[in-house]
């Protein structure tokens, strides 16, 4: 036998969760051609993997880098993803996708998307099909599995209009979703914590997602709530984060399709104790036959927009909310009541990137630090920053499922067998980085597998690869077997790990040595070839 590439003498984790086997992998073209004893085989290129492990290429279940891939230099920006072993990203999350770009959202979409990229896009596409074709023509540094965003299609139908959509508007949104699915999108995502998704009710979600049943797509949701907020009127009411899980499950109950609860986090000290309650509820849903899973990142911090704390009523006109004295007082009162009740602190909120480069020195500082610098109250400082910087400014909150070394909630989530691994990072090449951009998958393998023994290596690999591929319907990814795509990661189980810190978030990981993408070696000795364009668009089949 003759191959283009042989990876010799490794411990092979096939992505199914099965115990590893010793052997070699032969690659021909973009496919795995053989797995086993290949001692007598020849190859144009052979790599000795003795003492190393091989896994399927890692799948980032929740990415926003589909907004960066349209840039010609995206390989340089997204190199940290490949250097931690990621070969496929699932884009279009949180209800926000770059397509369809049509008359109705032509003004709003670039404003919304600008939080996720720093350089102007040329929007040389209109439909989802044209978007994916444009990326293929340009070339991709890694594989892209694309979702269509509910927020994108809602904006196309009725802009940022508050309130639930009517029947005619829901039908129009469903038509746009159906077209995107027919042109290659794998499913539909929602962002129910952001405008305009925050204005949708459950009836709108069920109606808009009807094409997923017809086309067997997947539904993913940035849920309505990740905080344990009860009702003042009804103390027996379930906390809001548990009700949000039921809203995700409602789409399954309506259509019988796979549903994915995005980034399962518990925000603020008073929400952390609900971790067991929510996980037990999710287990009951699975026992009832609900096809639900979720994803998480292995950090107690996560990135989002600066305006995430603003009450929903302020979102259609943020400037009035922070400049009109009466509205500002109302917003400040809400923040000063809600945040302490949730156990959230301005010391936890760190600025990642600001569009006004005159205050670029704020990047890396917390709201509390900026308030001290200005000699002002932290809540008033936050409202000032919203007015000065707007919704495009990015932050990272360090109170998600823990804080500092307290991560009991996070560990419970990561340990669950239905938790997929995600970065959920906003990586643009500018500003203060989210450490997830550099260390997510190595951190799971190093800290939670090797050091804490929270997860077995085979199970961790499964939830980074095969399980994620199954959730997204990627039939030829996520596993190592003859005939499947040659997306592979070679790593050292004894040294793989995350080297980032909160103050130094852009350090490369250890132990990731070689990455093969569609048969091409794109990472050698831990470094990505920034000119490589071996990625593919993975369309719905």
Give me a quick take on this structure.
The protein is α/β, with parallel strands linked by helices and 541 residues long. The protein is built from 17 helices and 20 strands. Strands 1, 2, 3, 4, 5, 17, 18, 19 and 20 form a nine-stranded mixed β-sheet that branches. Strands 6-7-8-9-10-11-12-16 form an eight-stranded parallel β-sheet, with helices on both faces.
How would you characterize the overall build of this protein?
The protein is α/β, with parallel strands linked by helices. 33% of the residues lie in helices and 19% in strands. It has helices at residues 74-83, 108-113, 128-138, 150-158, 167-182, 202-208, 210-215, 240-255, 275-287, 318-323, 325-342, 367-374, 378-389, 408-415, 436-451, 457-464, 466-472, and strands spanning 2-12, 21-28, 31-36, 42-48, 53-56, 58-60, 86-91, 143-149, 187-191, 218-222, 259-261, 292-296, 302-305, 349-353, 394-397, 419-421, 488-491, 512-517, 520-524, 527-528. A hairpin with a 2-residue loop joins β18 (512-517) and β19. α4 (150-158) crosses α5. The longest helix is centred in the middle third of the chain and has 18 residues, at 325-342. The two termini are 32 Å apart. The model has no long low-confidence stretch (mean pLDDT 96).
């Amino acid at each position: 036998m003759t191959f283009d590439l042989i990876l010799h003498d490794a411990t092979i984790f096939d992505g199914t969760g099965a115990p590893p086997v010793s052997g070699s992998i032969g690659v021909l073209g973009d496919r795995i051609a053989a797995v086993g004893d290949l001692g007598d085989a020849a190859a144009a290129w052979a790599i000795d993997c003795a003492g190393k492990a091989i896994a399927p290429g890692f799948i980032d279940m929740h990415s926003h880098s589909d907004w960066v891939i349209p840039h010609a230099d995206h390989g340089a920006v997204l190199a940290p993803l490949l250097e931690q072993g990621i070969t496929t990203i699932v884009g279009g999350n949180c209800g926000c996708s770059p397509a369809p770009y049509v008359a109705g959202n032509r003004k709003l979409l670039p404003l919304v998307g600008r939080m996720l990229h720093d350089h102007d896009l040329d929007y040389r596409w209109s439909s989802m099909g044209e978007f994916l074709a444009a990326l293929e023509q340009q070339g991709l540094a890694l594989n892209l599995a694309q979702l269509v965003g509910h927020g994108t299609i809602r904006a196309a139908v009725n802009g940022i209009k508050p309130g639930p959509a009517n029947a005619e508007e829901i039908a129009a949104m469903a038509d746009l979703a159906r077209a995107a699915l027919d042109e290659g999108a794998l499913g539909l995502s929602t962002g129910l914590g952001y405008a305009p998704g925050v204005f949708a009710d459950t009836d709108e979600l069920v109606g808009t997602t009807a094409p997923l049943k017809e086309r067997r797509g997947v539904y993913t949701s940035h849920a309505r709530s990740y905080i344990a907020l009860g009702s003042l009127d009804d103390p027996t009411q379930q906390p809001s984060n548990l009700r949000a899980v039921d809203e995700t499950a409602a789409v399954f109950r309506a259509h019988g399709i796979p549903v994915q609860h995005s980034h399962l986090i518990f925000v603020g000290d008073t929400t952390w104790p609900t971790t067991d309650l929510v996980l037990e509820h999710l287990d009951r849903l699975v026992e009832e036959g609900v096809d639900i899973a979720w994803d998480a990142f292995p950090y107690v911090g996560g990135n989002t927009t600066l305006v995430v704390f603003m009450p929903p009523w302020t979102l259609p006109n943020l400037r009035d909310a922070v400049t009109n004295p009466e509205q500002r007082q109302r917003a400040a009162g809400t923040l000063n009541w809600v945040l302490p009740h949730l156990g959230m602190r301005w010391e936890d909120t760190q600025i990642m990137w600001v569009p006004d480069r005159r205050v670029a020195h704020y990047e890396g500082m917390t709201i509390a630090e900026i308030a001290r610098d200005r000699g002002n109250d932290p809540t008033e400082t936050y409202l000032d920053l919203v007015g000065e910087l707007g919704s495009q400014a990015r932050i990272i909150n360090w109170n998600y499922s823990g804080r500092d070394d307290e991560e009991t909630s996070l560990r419970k989530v990561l340990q669950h067998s239905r938790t997929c691994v995600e970065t959920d990072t906003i990586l643009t090449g500018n500003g203060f980085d989210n450490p997830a951009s550099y260390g997510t998958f190595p951190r799971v393998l190093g800290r939670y597998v090797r050091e804490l023994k929270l997860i077995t290596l085979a199970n961790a690999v499964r939830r980074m690869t095969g399980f994620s591929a199954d959730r997204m319907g990627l039939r030829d990814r996520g596993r190592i077997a003859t005939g499947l795509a040659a997306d592979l990661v070679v790593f050292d189980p004894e040294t793989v790990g995350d080297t980032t810190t909160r103050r130094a978030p852009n350090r490369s990981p250890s132990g990731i040595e070689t990455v093969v993408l569609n048969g091409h070696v794109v990472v050698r000795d831990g470094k990505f070839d920034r000119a490589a364009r071996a990625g593919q668009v993975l369309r719905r089949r």
